[in-house]
Amino acid sequence: MASLDLLTPHLSKINIPSSQQLVYKDECVYSFDNPESETGLYVSLTSFLGFGRNYVEQYYQKTGNAVFLHIAREKQPIPEQEQTGDGPEKKITRLAIGVEGGFDPDSGKPKFTYTDHYNVVVLPGFHTFPWPNDALPEVVKKSVRGVLDAESPFKKAEMAALQGTWDGEKREVSVHAFNLTQLDNGVKIPPTGWKCAKCDLSNNLWLNLTDGSILCGRKFFDGSGGNDHAVEHFRATGYPLAVKLGTITADGKGDVFSYDEDDMVEDPHLAEHLKHFGINVQQLQKTEKSMVELELELNRRNGEWNTLQESSSELRPLHGPALTGLNNLGNSCYMNSVLQVIFRMPEFVRRFVDGAPEIFATFPADPVNDFNVQTAKVGVGLLSGRYSFPDEAEGGQRGISPHMYRQLIGKGHPEFMTKRQQDAHEFFLHFLMLLERNSRNKPNPAECLKLLVEERIECSESHNVVYNSRAECHLPLPVPLAAATNVPQVRDYEARRAQAEASGQRLDPSQVIRPHIPFTSCLESFMKEESVEMFFSAALNKKVTAHKTTRLATFPDYLLIQLKKFTIKEDWTPAKLDVAVEMPWEVDLSCLRGMGLQDGETLMPSAAPDAPAIQLDENLLTQLLDMGFPVEACKKSLYYTNNSGMEAASNWLMEHMNDWDFANKFEPPGSKSADAGVSIPVDPDSVEQITGMGFTAAQAAQALRATGGDVARALDWIFSHVDQMEEQPPASDRKQGCRDGAEKYRLVAFISHMGTSTMVGHYVCHILHEGRWVIFNDNKVALSENPPKDLGYLYLYERL
């Protein structure tokens, strides 16, 4: 054993962790090494940061902190005959993975025993003192005990995230539960023989808790379910609460829906409310599927889950560099898929993988909350192959668990900080925003995705034109159902399925027939001419109808296409179009090329000084804001509906939720600030706010154009591009600094979603790797035999 004198020079730097101190004893802050790794984990007794063997020496050289607790974890499987707790297969009650009640990615794996071995280590030389050890100085012993007793920051983050998680069963108590009106109309409900009062349906029945009416529920997105009689009854009477018959249990629980609140709710007085109609809950048994169970069944029934996961194929596992899986941290599949795709683009690899040594060498004081460090950590973890190897004990690939990254990238975000399922596209955009803020003095790799959208607006009377442009990082394409090429087959399939279900049977999910939409139809829908109502024509000094077409002024190195599959149904509930879009392996998009101002076209003059001011109904605006819509979108809805009322305005909002500029600053079409030639308009007040901080108006305008008018992001942008701005004035050409090249692309990756809305389900991705398609399903990585490219959601195309 080494001499204790080696500790003496370092005792003054040793700290004792407080109850609030975060102690990173589960994983290295620069890699995915952990106590189970071959070389274990070293926890600094000064900063309480954890380091793998590859980084602990660099940390010591940078900081002089020399004393560490080394943790090595021995993992041994328990013999099968000694395992306990076996029982029936756990019932799935949530459309989620890796969370309680959802699909368990670890089910079926062997159980283990864990033995931790501790040593106090002093650098340089890695001098070792075994623990426990009464001979150690008191401050060392207290520090080690504090580290061992500290709660994992990962667990703390998990608990915080779970506080906002909807679990499929936990619901808000209805505002109507405590003062519900129940009519004394003599209605008594029999224990069996229920049937809808307005049709012949005998399942999916809902009992109205005010008048005792029994009516069928809503139609599901696939046409099954009820005939909407229960919701029609609410519209006619206003009676708010109904319970689904067959879901009521002896303890007074059941599926209660509030039509007034438009959500599943909790009714703590359900037993009492049922007693009013002669129902004794203690004599009831659950016989119907809950709404969560029905949603699970719908997803399995349409075959999407099996198809996207290629469940029918014997997938061959793959391992090695760039073939590393990401463990699902509880509905983190949306993040996992996006991260896999991001690191397929060379610019991201150069910045965060090839550049990782430079990023790590800075050794910031708080590497856990450093975006560049943690992004580099993920990139190296995915591409190095260090964590991609078969693990017999684990029953598959161990992969990496990006706990720190998830906590960092979701910090302060109301959705991404939770463990709820999220939209992969929204997360992609969120990542790009954070990347932009953290690209000071370094090139932003997202430039390879940047494209310039060109809008041409023509006044229908004067035929003067306006050209507007904006920078984007993706191309959203509509999915026109009317363009389906197999309508007769779809109708036949739906009829056969309805007939089978009526007789209690099911069709083979693998034989599902979806509407097939040609990719060319999506392009045509994007390019088609749109009418712009109430366009102020400066040429005529009045409002007219104009016509708008949208094209691309530039084509990026990598084109990210989003299929707009998610929509809002007539009853305002979210839904996903269950369609197959015939996406091409290779494509020529020259039809999307915008050409700018053409010979013979006349530009619209600047708006007249006497242009009418916007008049918005403040009361309506307040009501729309109370519904949760963005303020600028609410202004647009009132403008385009002439303040005609809540119904018209809210309908406009629902119809335009997927517009590119839905929440952007509203400028009436044809107004002076909206008419900016080929330049992206900027807000003069925002320019003034930035110039007041010492920057020029040109710098302020350039930064605002690059960040969509957001002042905070514009300031970050200026700091990260100050050298470029001094050397190069704002681009005067119509490409505005965006890269441009040939319009021919090939598909290199796509992300698919399983489920009925963005808030539930599961994401997987398929990536073209060394000429072969590979499926990444969280930590399962395998050779793809049948890449389901027609069922994707996000597609990444690379220029040929």
Relevant terms:
single chain; 800 residues; alpha+beta; Herpes Virus-1; Cathepsin B, Chain A; Helicase, Ruva Protein, domain 3; eight-stranded mixed beta sheet; 22 helices; globular
In short:
It comes from Leptidea sinapis. With 800 residues, this protein is of the alpha+beta class. The chain is 26% helix and 19% strand.
SSE topology sketch:
Blueprint: E1 41-44, E2 50-51, H1 53-63, E3 67-77, E4 112-122, E5 127-130, H2 138-149, H3 153-162, E6 205-208, E7 214-216, H4 229-237, E8 241-244, E9 256-258, E10 263-265, H5 270-275, H6 291-301, H7 304-308, H8 333-342, H9 346-354, H10 356-361, H11 371-383, E11 390-391, E12 396-397, H12 403-409, H13 424-437, E13 451-459, E14 465-472, E15 475-477, H14 487-502, E16 516-518, H15 519-527, E17 530-537, E18 542-552, E19 558-563, E20 566-568, E21 574-576, E22 580-582, E23 586-588, H16 618-626, H17 631-640, H18 646-655, H19 684-691, H20 697-706, H21 711-720, H22 722-727, E24 744-754, E25 762-769, E26 772-777, E27 780-783, E28 792-799
Parallel strand pairs: 15-19, 16-22
Antiparallel strand pairs: 1-2, 1-3, 3-4, 4-5, 6-7, 6-8, 8-9, 9-10, 11-12, 13-14, 13-18, 17-18, 19-28, 20-21, 23-24, 24-25, 24-28, 25-26, 26-27
Helix pairs in contact: 8-13, 9-11, 11-12, 16-17, 17-18, 19-20, 20-21
